[in-house]
């Protein structure tokens, strides 16, 4: 009975996060059946990573914005602008590919500083500032590109999003290097989870039974290594997945273990209390948007590299996909709640649904309807969960 009680506690202690992982597994299973296994084919798994990586990159920054109690409607336009700046320098002016990357990142940082100034120091709501930014940066994109598309990028630039690490350690029918890298990641996760569990025990916090903890690690390891094997039997480890993995690790540490991360949660959770506690709210809000500009520029580089060019209409609706990923992944509409991992799962849910419906031949209009309903259901669940928690406290 103790094991059953621990299992119940494990699943209900954080209902939002537990639910999203279960939903993710069920959605994968559903679309795998509906597509006759095509969804989980090695080539399609690789395509999923390549096609939706820039949305996941945007979601990392967006979840921090949302945790802080803000919203950013301009990221799609910033993706287009940063890609346009890079294309003009590399394709039109013939400069080295890395100059275009650095210029794109610099542009994103300037955009973030611009919007952060108006939000943090002038006090204009982020919704208005970024709505204006969506129009402003789209117009600048048109001016930079002179209303035409530019292509192609040199091979070195395209490799950022379309290249693979394959054959470094050999293998027969699969890439050994990919499996080794994922194996190291699994070991690292297991060590981190074990240390976290020991720390909770030291502070006399509730943890799952050792058997359940071991089963959870084994299940996670099995899923991760299965995913790695799918990549290894296709084209190897995508370069863009390396970029995404580094960003996930860095921003997980930033949000969970840094002073900046704690201050972001404090501002989003209770602004008045944060001010009284000495949190430099204006400074933190400023850097929230600088960080969003930086990640939007990284997404802009990845997207332009994948599309092998820059287009005036690039990045349209990206902001909505990123916002949806965060809310589906457990972020609260009122701020103060959310995780990088949750945003990633939310983004992957959107990616699996989109890709699955494409494989099934579902028309674009129906896809939009389904995405809208899923987003509405996620936010409705957030509201219901808060009311339930409030009623339990009273």
Automatic annotation (TrEMBL):
InterPro entries associated with the record: ABC_transp_permease
Signal peptide interval: none
UniProt KW keywords: Cell inner membrane, Cell membrane, Membrane, Sugar transport, Transmembrane, Transmembrane helix, Transport
Entry's Gene Ontology molecular function annotations: transmembrane transporter activity
Pfam assignment, any one: BPD_transp_2
Transmembrane regions listed in the UniProt entry: 20-41, 48-67, 73-91, 98-118, 124-145, 166-191, 211-229, 236-254, 286-305, 326-353
Record has Glycosyltransferase as a keyword: no
Compartments, record wording: Cell membrane
Gene Ontology cellular-component terms listed: plasma membrane
Topological category with respect to the lipid bilayer: Multi-pass membrane protein
Protein role: Part of the binding-protein-dependent transport system for D-xylose. Probably responsible for the translocation of the substrate across the membrane.
PANTHER family to which the protein is assigned, alphabetical: ABC TRANSPORTER PERMEASE PROTEIN YPHD-RELATED-RELATED, XYLOSE TRANSPORT SYSTEM PERMEASE PROTEIN XYLH
NCBIfam families reported for this sequence: GguB
Identification of the protein by name: Xylose transport system permease protein XylH
